[in-house]
Amino acid sequence: MSGTFGSHRAQALRDGRADLLSRGHADLSAAELRRTLCALYERELGLLAQEAGIGQASGFALIALGGLGRREVLPFSDLDLLLVHERRPDRELAAIADRLWYPLWDSGIGLDHSVRTVDQSLAVAASDVCAGLSLLDARVLAGDPDLGALVVDGARRQWRGQIASRYDDLVASAAARRQRAGVIAHLTEPDLKHGAGGLRDVQLVSALTLAHLCDGRSARPGDFAAAHARVLDARTELHRASGHAREVLHAQYGDEVGAALGVGDRFELARVLGDASRTISFTTDQALRVSCAALSTRGLTGLLHRSPVRRPLAEGVVEHAGEVALARGVRAESDPWLPLRVAAAAARAGLPIAPPTLGVLAQRCPAPQGRWPDTALSDLLVFLGAGEAMPPVFEALDRSGLWERLLPEWSEIRDLPARDRAHVFPVDRHLIQTVVLAARLITTVRRADLLLLAALLHDLGKGRPGDHSVTGAEMVRPVARRLGLDDDDEDTLARIVRHHLLFVTSISRHDPGDPATAANLLAHLEHDAVAMDVLAALTEADSRATGPTVWTRGKARAHAALVAACRQRPSGRLEVPDVPAVEASRPRGKPDVVVDLEATGAGTRHEVTLVVPGGGRSLEAAARVLAFHRLEVVEARIDLRPPGGMRAVLTVATGFGAPVDPRVLATDLRRTIDSGLPGPMRAALARATEHHPGDTPVSVLVSARSDGDGVILEVRARDRPGLLAQIVTAVLGAGARIDWVVVRTRGSAVEDAFALSGPGAVLSTAAVVEAALS
Q1: Which of 147-151, 514-518, 592-596 bottoms out in mean pLDDT, i.e. has the lowest?
Q2: Where are the domains of the chain?
Q3: Taking every annotated instance into account, which residue ranges of this chain make up the domain ACT (predicted)?
């Protein structure tokens, strides 16, 4: 064919794009540049098609796919075009195609093209997920509009009709793409197109919305559209700055792109894009989950359909259809702590929060005011201690605006890029990862609650000028008071945050085996044994969360040596629990079981007083009966020394609903003491307390008693139903006598102390208990 046909159109395209990208149009915003480029391409392609013989009655249609189809034309992206025909002869097809494609090749604009019939187009879309997705954004640019509509509308109807059979392929393709490209919010050089939270995710949400599987909305109306525009603008400016079709935002272009978008330097740009991409990623995850749930119900007939079971998880919180939702009748308007309770239940159960529930919590729940109640702090600690199940729930709270209500200081570090290249995460995500890793270490410390709070807050000062350790220590004090910590715990938490790099600097600058190094470290901590204990675990979690190059084998060995040296010094030893003072008198007359239960005024928590004849076996029976009636022991002071039998004052939590009648509790306790736990109760308790070996870390320590002969057995474990009964059974099985017990539950971490005497009060008892709980 002649090389001159359409040359003027090629020149117009080439000159038009060059003019728009010249300095004379540098004032065009990213959105204006895309609109102008789109108008240029549509005009010239329409004229070129008309000159090539593609008219309204020609039997041909030129269809735009990709960015031009979505009207999201980027400066150096390829044109993706489909020429549709009505089964024309090959010679005629070749002539028309040559007139169309050659000028576009001559223009210097990248071209991805194909020539197909309607049936061929739909067949390709049906066989290939990516091809099917591309046709969902298609638009007819020129030619026969009815022929073009057969492809465009047919592809959309086909997508809706076949989505059930193609859904698994769609999800697998998206997961593979995200795995290859990474998470935009976590990368210093993110892939704005393919990464999790990028433009491909936006197209995925659009495709699921078109299939009527979700509504495509984010937790906060308007956020998704704004996030999409922000990432798209950044990719547009990346093209303009680099002069090439780029998807990865390399650091060398960060400042220029940030300036063009008016957000500042590359660090501020990373923060803005991190926030936008997290909104996109979260909305995409929600859309996938909602879509999966919608598809799972489509195949059910009316006769087979059953309403999903609503399983109670916490007060006012239920599991419904695999998601965490609010129970019927819950008044969110009067409960500022409901979001925390929902989050704790979701993290503990490993379930997502239902999108409508997030909406209700965000719109109706009031912001917390004043000092937190004990139950709210406990819910926060349960949430933080959930390990790998915590980050997805945190993301739901943060994207919905709920997390900032609970911790307003978080806004200063949200999506804040780390300046140190050793960090693989932004500051806020680093803190969350530190919490996840600290949750694995809660049984290695006496104060698991301070470890989790320090992990969450230790870098809070990075959002302000100055030394972030010093600033963070100042910031954490009002937070600690708000959370309800006492003065001593506030001082300890601030001390930990102030010196959270102390172990790292001590190891790097001094010999960890030198006694002077340990002495100097303890002096900096003001000989606070709890701070040292927690800081040792925090250092490991913080280092591991920073990046793979930080926590090496050599540093781990040096750290362990310094921790051991600190614990050998008198000031580095933790005190054992005090002997509990229990005021619970037995009525005169025949020994009997006395049970008193009253609400403490803090939600589902109640105080239980027990006076029971006997010793350790009575405690074992009481623990089993309490577990059967789903009364979780939060705190307890139990005295089993003669002659008064067992006297106990316990704080228990029901989780949800009203507690058992104390008369029923007393009857069950008498019967269990006399003849053991009845068979049906024993079977129900076994189901409720089922434990999978190895899924709960346990630490058992033994030290000498200060109040007499014997040992103190300290058990640190992750809480679970029936744990107290299991410990008592193991101790009695080892032949030890239990004199008194102190129980303390901090969120999901249990710290129990048993004063033992008799022949079984030996070091080997610890191994027996640890084996029974593992």
Answers
A1: 592-596
A2: 7-160, 182-258+282-296, 313-572, 595-773
A3: 712-774
